[in-house]
Structure formats: C-alpha cells, structure tokens
Design brief:
By secondary structure, this protein is α+β, with helices and mostly antiparallel strands. Helix content is 31%, strand content 15%. The chain has a five-stranded mixed β-sheet, sandwiched between helices. The termini are far apart. 19% of the residues are buried.
Length: 338
C-alpha cells in the first residue's frame, strides 16, 4: 500500500514537471498564435427541434414596427391586393348569369393565377380604381375565379380560348363570350375596352324580344313614319335658321403639370372623332379649363360639353376635377352642343 502511494506521488510529480513553463515574452517579438479547437453544441434530446417556415418570416420589430409577413414566392391562390368586397359577386358563375339576366347586365369574368405578378397588379391598379368600380357596379356582374379552383377549371373547359393570364372576358347571360381583353391589362386599356364595349352593347339590349314583342315594335315603328307632305305645305318655304358664330373658349388651356408634381390627375378624353387624348391636370383645374384644352385639339372651334361615361353625367363648367370626384385615368366624353 505504501509503495502504491509512492508511485502515485511520482506520477503527480511527472505530470507537474511536464506542464509547459510560461516563456519570457519580449514586446519586440510576435506571440505565437493560440491553438485552434472545434466545439460542437448538441441539442438536448428532450427538446423538440424548431421548425421554421421559410415562406413567411417575421421582420424585426425594433426596425419595422409591427411584424409583417414576407413572401419568398407568389402563391397561386393568395392575393397580395384583394379586390374590394363590394365589387365581387359571391355566387357561382351560373348564379352570376342568372342575376345578370334579370338585371339587364353582362357578366365580367376574371381568371387569376397569382403565381404571375401581372395578376397582382391587375387587382392593385385596375379593380381598386374608383373609375372602374363605378362602371362595373352599373353595368356588370363581376366574378373572379382562380385558375386551379374547381369552378375555374370548369370555366376554362367550357371556354378553351381563355388562355391569357390574367384573363378578362365579358359573357352575356346566355353564356356567349362576347368580348375578351387580352394582352397588357393596364388601367387605361381596361377602361378604354370596357367603355368601347358598352358603347356598342348597351345592357338593355341583352333581353331578347319575343315574336309578339318584335311584331309590336314593328307596328309602332310604322306608325312613327312621317305623314306625306301636301301640295300646300310643299309650296311654303321652310324657315332658314340664322347662322350663329361658333363660341370661342373664354380661357386659355392651362399648363400641363410635371410627372412629379403633387395633386395631379390624369384625364382621358374621347374626342368627337373617337380618338383618345390623354393629359395631366391639377385637381384644382376646372371643367372650363378642360374644355379650353379640348378646343385646342379640334380643327375648328365649336361649343362643347364634357360628360362622364357611366353613369351619364354632364359636368358643369365651374366644377373642378376634385369637386366632381373624377378618378385618376377616368375617361370623359367630349360632345358637341347644338
């Protein structure tokens, strides 16, 4: 036992002797680098692993305030800019056609695939526009379908030519696809295409007349024919109206604001010949000033008026763009006043 204890003491002395001594360090010399080592931190077997959804990550509260979701990719079913609820028809496509039949309207169908950013911009720039909403509520039953939904697949099976995304189509209550808006779906183009369609297809013409109604309409048209002119009436000269000089605009056309100016609204004019003219104005400019600009675009001056498209409303000269609640990129119709 005594020998064993001695061996232990010798062993302890050897260990102490083998420890490296602290070398003298001179400030003019370079210290040798410290030895490198690797440590592994193991998670407890009793702790559940943390699962992180990399598709949605909260932002830093201290930097950005309230945490907001961040999307790494576009979801095919999730809208970044939802359509206003008061604009959408909540029923099915068949229900929309039935309601449109009774209300004398058309069905406007929008097929979306939110994996494409153009579908998000359509919701943000077009359906959220006040001008578009005013036209839609007065003339259309609006329904939006997802491409990968059951009803969306049924619609695409019945209308196989609806291949563009986003797809915008106008369907009659009978189910006929009468108009399609394809290509670039900017706000200006959608408003122009819809107003052109309504000019040619008034909603009241959707109702089909029966044979009795067509016969009655023909009889009324025949009764409306003018009576034959008698000999005495033919010899009397017709009074000639006195020529009146065309009125000149009382104001000069205002200067166009710059693209970076504040309180600016863009107005689209449909001229007398059907062409479109687009220009920026301050929201404080009056309708009279708008008329002064329109007069500069005509070959000959004449008396004009400006009206909204739907609902039909003639704007008063003293109204401003702001007081008349004209939306940005709203289409106004230029009309000649006899």
């Amino acid at each position: 036992m005594h020998r064993h204890g001695g061996d232990a003491a010798v062993t302890h002395q050897n260990i102490a002797r083998e420890e490296p001594e602290e070398p003298d360090f001179d400030s003019t010399q370079t210290r040798a680098p410290a030895p490198t080592f690797v440590q592994n931190l193991y998670q407890s077997i009793h702790q559940q692993p943390r699962v992180v959804d990399r598709r949605i990550m909260p932002l830093d509260d201290d930097v950005y305030g309230e945490p907001q979701p961040r999307f790494d990719r576009y979801s095919p079913t999730q809208a970044m800019f939802p359509v206003p609820p008061n604009l959408l028809f909540r029923g099915s496509f068949e229900d929309a056609k039935e309601v449109a039949k009774h209300m004398g309207k058309f069905v406007l169908v929008n097929i979306q695939n939110y994996s494409q950013f153009a579908c998000h911009t359509l919701d943000r720039d077009v359906w959220a526009s006040d001008a578009v909403q005013s036209i839609m509520k007065s003339n259309f039953i609006f329904i939006q379908l997802q491409e990968n939904s059951e009803e969306g697949a049924q619609f695409l099976a019945f209308y196989p030519n609806a291949i563009s995304r986003p797809f915008i189509g106008i369907v009659s209550p009978t189910g006929e696809l009468v108009e399609e808006i394809s290509g670039k779906v900017s706000l200006e183009r959608v408003v122009e295409k819809i107003t052109e369609f309504l000019d040619q297809h008034q909603p009241r013409q959707v109702q089909q007349l029966s044979e009795d109604e067509e016969l009655h309409a023909a009889m009324m048209a025949s009764l409306a024919q003018p009576l034959p002119v008698t000999t005495q009436q033919a010899t009397q000269p017709a009074p000639q109206p006195a020529p009146q000089p065309a009125p000149q605009p009382t104001l000069q056309a205002p200067a166009e604001p710059g693209p970076d100016d504040a309180n600016v609204s863009t107005i689209i004019f449909r001229m007398l010949d059907g062409t479109r003219v687009k220009r920026r104005f301050f929201v404080t400019n009056t309708v009279q000033e708008l008329l002064a600009f329109v007069s500069t675009q005509l070959p000959q001056p004449c008396k004009l008026q400006i009206s909204r498209t739907y609902p039909k409303l003639v704007l008063q000269p003293h109204d401003t763009i702001e007081s008349a609640n004209l939306a940005n990129n709203e289409l106004l119709v230029v009309e000649r006043v006899e």
